[in-house]
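Pasting as-is:
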Amino acid sequence: MPEIIYAPFWYEERGFVFLSFKERLCGLILSDFQSSEIPLITKTPIFKHLNRHLKSVILKKGKIPPFQQTEQALRDYFSSQLTCFKLPLLLIGTPFQKMVWRALLDIPYGQTITYQSLAYKLNIPKATRAVAQACKSNPLPIIIPCHRVIGKKGLTGYSAGLAWKRFLLNIESLACL
């Protein structure tokens, strides 16, 4: 059975869980924005996504080098010292999802794009909803910056909640002043 290594991490009052498969970061679970309490891993959409794609995984708590790198990268990001993550990632999803997630990595720090514009950039202009679903399925929020994608009429959903999305966009916009 595939094994996912996990470790909790807290920064200020925010809780996170790092998930790794084969020594590469494959998931990042965020706590509720108003609480530092970390949700039960197996109940999160991110774990369910990974479990579905890897076919029945087992969880094992541990500390591995990619987690230490991710801790430092998140500290630097939240203090506006990091604009682009350089971490060992493993994208686990469908070919379509991976294509969308790679495109998200090209959205510059401090900028936003609409789901429709992203679909056009990917040369699939009629797939706006599918692009939005792929963003929603992103197992590495913050690191793969799906928070930079908004609706035509402004802020729309975010897998970790709109409070997180506002917070992340605010960090980036303040750093760009």
